[in-house]
## 1
Amino acid sequence: MTLNNAVETLITVQGTASDWYDAERATLVVQVQHDGPKREPVFEATTRVGADVTAAIKALDGTAVTRWSSDRVSVWSNRPWNNEGKQLAPVYYASLSATARFQDFDALAALVERFATVEGVTISSISWDLTEEKRLAVTTEIQTRAVQDATVKATTYARAAGLTKVSAIAIADPGMLGTGGGGDQPFPAGGGMMRTQKMMSMDAGAPALTFTPDKIEVAATVDARFSAS
């Protein structure tokens, strides 16, 4: 009887991949807020300006805007203190916000330019994104490339050790393979991520406001364990 005394070597690696893609959607958040010594004027001003903002967004719904929402006007008050420790008369506040997802960046720029200088209006944020379909497709592609990167690393290590046969025995999101068995190191959680290079870029020197969205990075990381002999 012949015994196989070959020793299996475990190789644990981390595979990564990333790429940049043009933004396809922009989500705009607009805040409308006024304050003053009397409740009714503050409420009326916020209601009026808020109605103008939502009407402008609603007019673009189905064309430049793919979806939008707004909340009701909130009203509250407080009594501030002066530097002498005396409580002053109440100050009233009214606020509402609207959110819109744009597929037409020229229309986005036009709306921001229209309301950016209106009293009580704040452009809270503009965030860039891919379509859901594109995000799913590119994430799958990037995750596949991360696994391929892990396989190449493991094969390189095996050949450097004089081994020729490499087989994957475990592939997981970072941190899910545990420790030991090949020198695992703790990695940040999450097998994939998406981020923008910058939130937004505006060309204020042009006659009309224009937006230049930066590219979006889609990245993936995997932990993988291989047996080599």
## 2
Amino acid sequence: MVKEPHPGRVKTRLGRDIGLTAAAWWFRHQSASLIRRLRDPRWELTLAVSPDVEGLESRVWPQDVPRVPQGTGNLGDRMGRILRHMPVGPVCIIGADIPGITRGHIAAAFQSLGDNEATFGPAPDGGYWLVGLKRVNPPPPSLFAGVRWSTKHALSDSRATLKGYRVATLAALADVDTATDLPPRG
């Protein structure tokens, strides 16, 4: 999931620490690096873009990577819509602000869906960097209902919307919300 990297539109908490333009610049380069790192013949990479029209027409992202609009609503509404409208089979959604993601993490997520119906990659702040569903059946209508986004409860609330599902947990990875979350330069 990516947003157009305009100052004031992306990474606003980071922008309070380092400036809105610098935060947008960081997000643009972080997400471009992520897209390059995650290209792999084992899966199809699709960008869920926001805002819809601007993201679909954007020149920021590689033109050869398919795009779908995120649509409106909170994060759960948008992720749920993506999970419901992708072709049948396993789907994993990640954010673009997690510098530590590797192909190995994505391969582990898809592998975990072999024996499980859902998988989460937890973040140290109580959120998560990945959600994946096997998608043999449509996701439940209650998926992500009542989740307290951007809180320490986001992962536990999300898991609770998957009652009766076998759920795997992946390695924890940190996202970047503030300047203290930025990886060291090197």
